[in-house]
Amino acid sequence: MNPPDHRPSWLLRWAERKARARAGQAAGADVPVAAGEQAAVDAAPQPPVPELPELESLGPDSDFRPFLDRRVDAALRRLALRRLFSQPAFNAGDGLDTYIDDCTAFTPLGEVITADMRHLAEVEARRLAATVSAPTPGGAPSAGAPVPVGADGDGPDLAGTDVASPAADTTAPVADVDVVEGRG
C-alpha cells in the first residue's frame, strides 16, 4: 500500500477522470492493476450460470434464489424480481401505514367551546368594554365616541369579534379572568 502522502486525493482523481471522459477516454484506462491480481482474475474459473426456470412458470411457491446469483444477467434478475413482487402476497398492507389517513376531511367541533376559546372571548369582551367606557379627557365616558364602520359602511366593524356569542356579561367577576389571563 502506498503511503497516504503519495496517493492522489479523491478530488484530484475525480477531476482527472472527468477530464478523460470529456476527451473520450475510458474511465479506468490508467488505473494500474498488479500483474498478480490480473492473472488471478483471468485464471479463476467462472462456474456456469445455474439452470434457471422460465419466468412465466414462476409462482408464489417458486424459489427465486437462483435469480439472485451474481452471474445472472441484471436484466433477467430485474424481471424475476418484478415477477416476484407483483404477486398478490406482496400487495397486502401490513396495517402500519402511518400516513395513510385523509387529513383533508376533519370533524368540525360543532357546538363545543373549548376553555381556550372561552378565555379568548372573555379577554376580547373585556378589552372592548374597556375601550367603550374609557373616560374622555373631560371626565365623562365617551358615549359619543365614533364607532369604527365596517367594510360595507352601514354598521360597526365587527372584524375579529365573535358575532355568534352573546354580549359579554359585565357582571362576571373580573378576578377569575385576571388569574387565567396571566398564563402565557
TrEMBL record:
This is Uncharacterized protein DUF3306. It holds the Pfam family DUF3306. Residues 38-61, 132-184 are annotated as: Disordered. Residues 133-177 have a biased composition (Low complexity).
